[in-house]
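Question: Hello, beginner here. Any chance you could explain the protein record under this note? Any guidance would be welcome.
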Amino acid sequence: MKLLSSVLFAGLLVSLLTINAAAAVKPAAKPNIVVILADDLGYGDVGCYGATAVQTPNIDRLAREGLRFTNGYCTSATCTPSRYSLMTGEYAFRKSGTGILPGDAAMIIQPGRTTVPSVLQLAGYRTAAVGKWHLGLGDKSKPIDWNGEITPGPCEVGFDYSFIMAATGDRAPCVYVKNHRVVGLVSEDPISVSYKEAYPGEPTGKDNREGLKMDWTEGHNNAVINGIGRIGFMKGGKAALWKDEDMADVFTKEAIDFIDREKSHPFFLYFATHDIHVPRIPNPRFVGKTSMGARGDAIAEFDDSVGRILQKLDDLHLTENTLVILSSDNGPVLDDGYNDQANEKLGEHKPAGPLRGGKYGPFEGGTRVPFVTRWPGRIQPGVSDAIVSQVDFLASFASLAGQKPDGTTAPDSTNMLAAFLGETKAGRQNVLEYSNKVAIREGHWKLVQPGKYRDQLNRWNKVEVTGPGWLFDLDSDVGESKDVAAEHPDVVKALNARMDTLLGGALPQQPKKRE
């Protein structure tokens, strides 16, 4: 009898331990969401999309374990409008002032409006923005006080935590902002920022060109920070200045620390790296990793950041319950204002792969970007040719989290969750691609409006698209080399009509400023 009782007790104990163990590893009701957004990373810049001159094992792992899209789009060929539409579910051309912003711009997302993080906050997610912001800070009614509380910012549009740079690495101010304050600032050395005139006694890229760590080719000759000329002027804040070589490590650590803090809750991490935007100053451990110089080495550095995020998810046993999406804010560019030999050392590498153009332009290379989703157990590994866009993150993530956002505040976001997860091969019917005007892709047809555009990857290659616009059949001509508008006037007419409907009478114009 005692033996039977002991056996029964042991069995009960094993059952309880098994139940407790199962409960300990039971996935959260809602999956974590991690968006990794590269900067200026081209369709052909990574191994899983055909690159061989640079090794990207971590991005390739993500694609191998997830779904690689061949028709994944950002919405704009430049940074600020692309990020605006990702965050709000609204094409940027619908709102004035969403062109490429200076470093002292006011925030262009109105506090209180629906955003990706605000929707997820309502569903109980902890949310963080880490890395590049470039959507403005502060209120337009007054200049930003870099020495005090900087508000509104990411925390006023849905993020619980933010650790960001205000704009881009080539723009002043060259400091990190944590939540509402500059990191490392001391009161005895206040920051001043101007986009109008230089500060007397402060070095500039024009006056100190021979002493620069990296020479400029256009525009980047105002304030000199860390031996590099920038856009805009700045003085003070010496203790708070970033070091470009350490930026990837700083941002990646912040992202990993956030995952560590919030591992017990569903979380949303928007990890927007600076790589591979100019100035390309990778950490010394990546210098010489590729044959392409600084640009190639920056790609390797970005891949390392991706790997460290994936490793943290593995270490915390969160991989199985985390949707990871990797993409880029726009297509590639070579010389973007600094002499980093991006052109000279390119070799046979094709940053946009088989696509035409890149950053700033209306062709596929400007907005068709790397786009990978991974959620082990939910997403079956493979390749999808569904047309998908970052503008759909808001509606899709809302659906995943059981939320229903107001469609009037996210008018262009469609629930494409099934496509993102590979549950359907049907994607968007059409997608708009914004440079200084709008192009439209619908099915295999692509129409570029008449206008003058940047073409290819070099700064001075420009092309004029004549009326009624250029039409391309992407099934047979993915490189957009042959205009077939004359052969298909009915298609041109139909796409122009569709574009007019989607634009709603808007005549989008993006200010021509260097990003």
